[in-house]
């Protein structure tokens, strides 16, 4: 793209800048202000030039306070220049005066660059893995002064300036240095500190001034509806989570108990006046609750900055900034650390698939399709009215990969659940014929997105062992959770959308009809070990008129509660890690809304308290029994006991692991008690009933087997005869000899 001509600033015998340069500086159109402003050689000495609107007199000083010379006003708009008595080029401070008083400022154009040639090389190559230490706004010490270093990628811009209240949002006053080859613009503004709102004023390649842009690498943002980025101090939090991180760095998560509590931070609970809890308030309430309920991880819907509350965070404009809704970035760090000290992991929903088209965001960032594809057949998402990242551009891939690394390094997050992976993998996702462009091989697969996901997973797992990635992927794309070197996408886990869909479909049927849908339950075991699965009962199932999990269950109110308890125990006994959206652990009746808190008063009522107690006990069993978690992702840990009793809608299987007693899981999905029901078991002896969802303490009818059944070898094969309570799941554990 054509850049404005950077006229070489020559000085005449009197050291004066050419009139054209002065006019261009005042107009904010000069292509290289560093060639004009600051300290410049003039003959055997130096001149200083500055642009200080509203000043009538300017005197130059060294940083040590020595007066260096008076500057003359060349232009009434505020352009000053004059000879200075210094022996070498160095930063200067100015004392400016007008009729209203005087003020001091340090000249940003008298400082050298902060970024170096190696930064240029790795940024241009797209291999820089610490972009978040270079781009954005960083408070640093530089050449004897403290201030903020700004850097932003805008390769097609004619001019980029930093604007804020500190310069009256005047884009002429802090025009940035163009690093030419990389498209990076940078500027060190001395004397600037933390807490300053700022944006970038960008003149596009056509000379048109764009709407002010927030910083793509902003580490803090203003609270919506304000949209400016904010200069953030270096993180002050001192971490104390070494034990937690050390454990997971050595663990194989496939063989660990992982039970995830999915949370929307803005509506889990609220203050009495309806406002959001701060991170510290959330920590004081949410972390103890999660510990008490027995979950191992909290998964937050996206907490990066986003302008629109009803997007739930999935349309983010600030991937590097924890949203200001809940306080400052250090507050989020304290939350994560507090969770870790309590033994709870923190997973973030992460959205690299698309971004909103709000004018202050990434869309047409430098006046061109920079982060997105220019062609709407590739760059526009019809479902969400959003822009799609250009995964074929190395700088965009680097921006996203660095963001994944950033959350793991700076905030110690334990994992990323990657949203809408299917929309990334298929070029024809939600598109009709003619509305998409095939790949270079003529296919519908987005090969560039595949490459990006593989790179992201390789870098994240390579640099941060102990961190896991989870794909929300709803198709049969192969090897989503297999290593990249085996041809996989490299994720640690994949959401099992089929499990969620089939089981909810089955349980929505009246019990008398379930016999005709028996395969909805059994089919999932055909592919249960094709990936490392998480079983998700997520927020997507309780919004947009879908009701709640309780309302999805067939029958009257008692049957709904009984079926939901049986379903949870069925799920906790099924191979795969567990995920439950907030409120479903106590059978929330109202559909979830981001506008209000959950209905916590329901816990005062026995049926709801019983569901919560069921989930709590299931989490305890799942974590304490290796048979229920250590082979979640391996077929050796599962075997059917009863697979074909469709007439009674009974299912039974065995879970096992080398270092734990086997556990039989038996579900009866009809309201009819099954007396003297024979269940084959692998070994004779006593089997203890470790949970029965029909127990009175949970709100059930209290039917059961007195806590124990006896398996014997009579009748050709070991089995036990027992009572299966109505609409229930029981688990039996072999009592060690």
Mind explaining what this structure looks like?
- This protein is α+β, with helices and mostly antiparallel strands.
- It is 21% helix and 26% strand.
- It has 15 helices and 35 strands.
- The strands form eight sheets. It has an eight-stranded parallel barrel, surrounded by four helices.
- β29 (650-657) and β30 (660-668) form a beta hairpin.
- α4 (279-293) runs parallel beside α5 and α7 (394-410) runs parallel beside α9.
- The protein starts with 18 loop residues before the first helix and ends with a strand.
- The model is unreliable at 1-9 (pLDDT under 50).
Summarize the structure.
By secondary structure, this protein is of the alpha+beta class. Helix content is 21%, strand content 26%. The longest helix is centred in the last third of the chain and has 19 residues, at 606-624.
């Amino acid at each position: 793209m054509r850049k404005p001509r950077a006229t070489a600033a020559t000085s005449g015998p009197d050291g004066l800048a050419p009139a054209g340069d002065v006019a261009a500086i005042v107009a904010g159109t000069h292509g290289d202000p560093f060639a004009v402003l600051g300290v410049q050689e003039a003959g055997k000495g130096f001149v200083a030039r500055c642009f200080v609107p509203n000043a009538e007199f300017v005197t130059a000083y060294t940083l040590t306070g020595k007066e260096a010379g008076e500057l003359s006003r060349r232009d009434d708009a505020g352009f000053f220049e004059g000879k200075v008595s210094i022996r070498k080029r160095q930063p200067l401070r100015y004392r400016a005066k007008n009729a209203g008083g005087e003020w001091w400022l340090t000249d940003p154009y008298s400082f050298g660059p902060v970024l170096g040639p190696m930064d240029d090389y790795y940024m241009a190559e797209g291999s820089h893995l610490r972009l978040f230490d270079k781009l954005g706004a960083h408070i640093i010490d530089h050449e004897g002064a403290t201030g903020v270093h700004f850097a932003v990628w805008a390769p097609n811009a004619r001019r980029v300036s930093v604007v804020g209240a500190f310069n009256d949002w005047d884009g002429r006053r802090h025009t940035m240095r163009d690093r030419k080859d990389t498209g990076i613009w940078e500027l060190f503004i001395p004397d600037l500190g933390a807490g300053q709102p700022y944006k970038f004023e960008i003149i596009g390649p056509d000379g048109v001034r764009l709407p002010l842009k927030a910083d793509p690498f902003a580490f803090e943002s203003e609270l919506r509806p304000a949209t400016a980025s904010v200069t953030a101090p270096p993180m002050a939090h001192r971490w104390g989570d070494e034990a937690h991180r050390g454990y997971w760095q050595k663990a194989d998560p496939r063989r660990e108990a992982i039970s995830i509590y999915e949370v929307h931070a803005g509506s889990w609970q609220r203050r009495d006046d309806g406002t959001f809890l701060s991170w510290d308030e959330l920590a004081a309430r949410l972390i103890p609750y999660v510990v008490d309920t027995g979950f191992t991880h909290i998964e937050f819907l996206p907490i990066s900055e986003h302008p629109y509350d009803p997007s739930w965070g999935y349309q983010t404009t600030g991937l590097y900034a924890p949203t200001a809704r809940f306080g400052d970035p250090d507050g989020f760090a304290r939350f994560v650390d507090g969770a870790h000290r309590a033994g709870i992991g923190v997973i973030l929903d992460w959205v690299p698939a698309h971004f909103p088209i709000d004018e202050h965001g990434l869309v047409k960032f430098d006046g061109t399709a920079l982060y997105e594809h220019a062609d709407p057949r590739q760059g526009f998402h019809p479902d969400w009215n959003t822009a799609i990242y250009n995964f074929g551009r190395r700088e965009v891939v680097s921006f996203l990969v660095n963001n994944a690394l950033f959350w793991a390094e700076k905030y110690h997050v334990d994992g990323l659940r990657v949203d809408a992976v299917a929309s990334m993998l298929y070029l024809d996702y939600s598109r009709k014929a003619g509305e998409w462009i095939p790949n270079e091989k003529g296919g519908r697969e987005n090969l560039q997105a595949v490459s990006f996901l593989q790179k992201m997973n390789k870098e994240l797992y390579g640099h941060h062992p102990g961190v896991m990635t989870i794909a929300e992927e709803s198709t049969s794309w192969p090897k989503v959770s297999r290593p990249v070197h085996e041809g996989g996408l490299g994720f640690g886990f994949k959401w099992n959308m089929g499990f969620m869909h089939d089981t909810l479909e089955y349980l929505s049927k009246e019990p008398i009809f379930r016999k005709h849908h028996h395969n909805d339950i059994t089919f999932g075991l055909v592919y249960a070990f094709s990936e490392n699965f998480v079983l998700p009962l997520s927020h997507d199932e309780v919004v947009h008129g879908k009701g709640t999990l309780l309302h999805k269950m067939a029958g009257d109110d008692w049957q709904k509660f009984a079926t939901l308890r049986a379903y949870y125990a069925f799920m906790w006994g099924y191979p795969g890690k567990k995920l439950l959206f907030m409120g479903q652990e106590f059978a929330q009746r109202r559909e979830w809304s981001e506008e209000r808190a959950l209905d916590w008063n329901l816990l005062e009522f026995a049926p709801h308290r019983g569901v919560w107690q069921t989930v709590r006990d299931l989490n305890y069993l799942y974590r304490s029994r290796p048979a229920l978690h250590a082979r979640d992702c391996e077929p050796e840990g599962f075997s059917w006991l009863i697979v074909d009793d469709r007439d009674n809608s009974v299912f039974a299987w065995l879970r096992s692991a080398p270092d734990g007693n086997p556990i039989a899981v038996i579900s009866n999905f009809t309201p009819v008690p099954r007396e003297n029901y024979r269940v084959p078991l692998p070994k004779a002896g006593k089997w203890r009933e470790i949970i029965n969802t029909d127990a009175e303490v949970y709100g059930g009818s209290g039917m059961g087997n007195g806590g124990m059944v006896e398996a014997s070898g009579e009748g050709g094969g070991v089995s036990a005869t027992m009572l299966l309570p109505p609409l229930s799941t029981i688990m039996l554990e072999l009592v060690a000899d």
